[in-house]
Structures are given as structure tokens and as C-alpha cells.
Design goal:
This protein starts with a strand and ends with a helix. The chain has a four-stranded antiparallel sheet. Helix content is 41%, strand content 17%. It has 157 residues and is α+β, with helices and mostly antiparallel strands.
């Protein structure tokens, strides 16, 4: 099982799309293991986007992400990172395929509703930033697990 971070950005929260976005992940079979609504501090957002620090859009990106509440979610599943990124769609929502979150719900490159970790390394770093407490993520087994995966084939060991 793999864990990943998803952020419903301020535009998703302001537009009342958090429920629809979470529903898409849950309907796919991903398990929610952590969630919080916060207006995250500038320092945390700068650390989160530190890879873009030298880019000209860095200040506006941090400003946008700090402009309102964000919903941080930790999701778990087999290949969760790739699955989440596929469900999100291309960064530029106008170019995102229909059926993806951005393709169905977005029109902007910058206000593109969601962030998802792009690698296992990023996921580990990002989850530690947004869910730093040992008790902030929940280990649990959904009663639907065997209906989402072939337990005998995919969940061996």
C-alpha cells in the first residue's frame, strides 16, 4: 500500500467542491487515512513549494495557497500516487481530459483545484509537513477492501 498527499486548494474549498473531489477518490477505491481543514501558515507553504523557490511564480503560488482554507488529505491504496495523479488530470485544467477532476471542474492553470504528490519521496516529505503528529493518520481496514482489490492476488503478504 502506498500513501499520498492531496490538497484541495482554496479555489476548491471556496467553490464547495471538496465533497465531490473526495468522492472521486473514495469511489475509485482509495482509503482516506487523514484529513484536516486549515489555513496553513506561509512558512509551511514555502517549505512545501520549496522546489519552486527560484521560479517567478513562487510568491503568487504561496500567496494563493495561503489566501483561504485548504483541505489536506492523506490517501492510501495500491499505486495511490499514480492513481491520484491520473484522477486529477493535467495541471492546466483547460487541457485536462474529461472525466478527471480538473477536466470536469476546472478552467484555470493556476487555480487548478488540487495538488497531489508526484513521487514516493515527495509523498513522504509532504505527508510529514501536513500531518506531522504520529496520531494524525489512521490505520484501519475498510469492510469493502475485498471488493476493491483481489485480496488473493493484489494484497498478498
Amino acid at each position: 500500500m502506498e500513501r499520498t498527499l492531496v490538497l484541495c486548494k482554496p479555489d476548491a474549498v471556496q467553490r464547495g467542491l471538496v465533497g465531490q473531489i473526495l468522492t472521486r477518490f473514495e469511489q475509485k477505491g482509495l482509503k482516506l487515512v487523514g484529513m484536516k481543514l486549515r489555513q496553513f501558515p506561509k512558512e509551511l507553504l514555502e517549505q512545501h513549494y520549496s522546489d519552486h523557490k527560484e521560479r517567478p511564480f513562487f510568491p503568487s503560488l504561496v500567496g494563493f495557497m495561503g489566501s483561504g482554507p485548504v483541505v489536506a488529505m492523506a490517501l492510501e491504496g495500491i499505486d495511490a500516487i499514480a492513481v491520484v495523479r491520473g484522477l486529477m488530470g493535467k495541471t492546466n485544467a483547460r487541457e485536462a481530459a474529461p472525466g478527471t477532476i480538473r477536466g470536469d471542474l476546472g478552467m484555470s492553470f493556476s487555480n487548478n483545484l488540487v495538488h497531489g504528490s508526484d513521487s514516493a519521496e515527495s509523498a513522504a516529505k509532504e505527508l510529514a509537513l501536513f500531518f506531522p503528529g504520529a496520531d494524525e493518520l489512521v490505520d484501519w481496514t475498510p469492510c469493502t477492501l475485498e471488493w476493491s482489490y483481489s485480496v488473493g492476488e493484489e494484497l498478498k503478504g
